[in-house]
Amino acid sequence: MLIKVPIQKDKAFSSEQPSTRQPQQPASMSAPLISNSAKSYAKDFLSFVASSPTPFHAVASSIALLERVGFTELRERDSWASSIKQGGKYYVTRNTTSLIAFSVGKKWSPGKGVAMIGAHTDSPTLRLKPVSAKTAEGYLQVGVECYGGGIWHSWFDRDLGVAGRVMVRQGDGSYKQQLLKIDRPILRIPTLAIHLDRDVNVKFEFNKETHLTPIAGLVSAQLNAETPVDPTTDSDDKDAGSVAKRHTPALISLISNELSCKPEEIHDFELVLFDTQAPALGGLHEEFIFSARLDNLGCSYCAVRGISDAAEKGEHDDGTIRLISLFDHEEIGSLTAQGADSNFLPVVLERLNKLDIGDGAQATSYEECLAKSFLVSADMAHAVHPNYAAKYENNHKPQLNLGPVIKINANARYATNSPGTTLLQHISSIPLQQFVVRNDSACGSTIGPMLSAKLGVRTVDLGNPQLSMHSVRECGGTKDVLLGTNLFREFFEGYEEAEAKIFVE
């Protein structure tokens, strides 16, 4: 969820379908608080999030799920004229951090509606600066930049790894993107001992530029290590702006070892920090999810599982397209080439409405399609906090494990209106909660308002409830993963029938 920032804001992912069969309980036992089916979905989500420390990895994890049920890749630079068929399932990426996937109904043709779910792949984090090499008082350090509106004090005293993409030069002179995930604690941002800051429990204050710099090692150890790059092997490395000159040599060496390439073949990278503690189920009855990046991998996973679960039933014999769009850069405003405020989704919808399938494209097919379409803007929501209940509006206190939360704001920070809520409630068997902020509180926003304005489609904002939003370690409900997934699956399956009954000119 995007917020305004004041000037001074594992195990390997398995793409296997979790079992939904609930074992029979002994007669003497009451029904469990969290069913085995809900735990199965939640545990698969834990694997998904553990494998997705960055938007690059989140898109790769999503593709693994989609390809398991038969989705095939399209590329923006290619023609789609002969590729897309009624009954087909496809996905396309941009920058490998944003993804759009869709299945085409067997009766769909240009001008008919699209049932859409939009979410985002990014979360607040610390990103390595272009020149990250630093030393101070005998320590090797890594310069980082704040991305988004994180709760930065939660990053202190955590075991941090590094992940992202690295551009590696190939033997033919081309450059290939490789994903990197160093899943062990190599960095740490230490707090100051209470003996040197007696007021720390009264108010924990820090400077984001000078106090939020991780330690990576000792200078003495670096001096004893070999220089990882031979400057005679590559003319680029003689440049003061080269990777070898801008970053700690030991870090470059570690990256090259992880990617099985030579240090001098690393041309550039985009790397962020992440907490290496694995996500887990928690609570007395495993009713909680303790994890990083619930905002917004929680809704991203539910969207991917919703469309893939529906696809597993076979080709849908209706006149709609089912579509999910996972965007990067929501946490910083979305105004990038791969953000929700770009042309990515409009271009995909326009290309689909130019196809010669079904009844074929007409001059106004694109505009007709938008008028018949609907968008669910899916971004995590605020669960009521037991220790700060006064921060919530009295009649709008969402609970964990009671279903997704419809988000409403009179000032259009969310795009929800009554026809949208009615449509979703008509389709879904899943319980839905509602949330508004207090009048004396600021309200966050989502991709919903910008996409509804850009496309003119009916939109509702919702998301699964959580605590500790934007912390390095967040808290959600175990049951809500299954509830969110089932809501999205029912939305896809029931949209055509509901859209015909609930319409406002």
Automatic annotation (TrEMBL):
Catalytic activity field: Release of an N-terminal aspartate or glutamate from a peptide, with a preference for aspartate
Domain of life assignment: Eukaryota
Keywords: Aminopeptidase, Hydrolase, Metal-binding, Metalloprotease, Protease, Zinc
Cofactor: Zn(2+)
Enzyme Commission number(s) of this protein: 3.4.11.21
Disordered: annotated span: 1-31
GO cellular component, one term: fungal-type vacuole
Annotated GO MF terms: metalloaminopeptidase activity; zinc ion binding
GO biological process: proteolysis
Composition bias type Polar residues, residue spans: 14-31
Family membership noted in the UniProt record: Belongs to the peptidase M18 family.
Protein name: aspartyl aminopeptidase
Organism for this UniProt entry: Saitoella complicata (strain BCRC 22490 / CBS 7301 / JCM 7358 / NBRC 10748 / NRRL Y-17804)
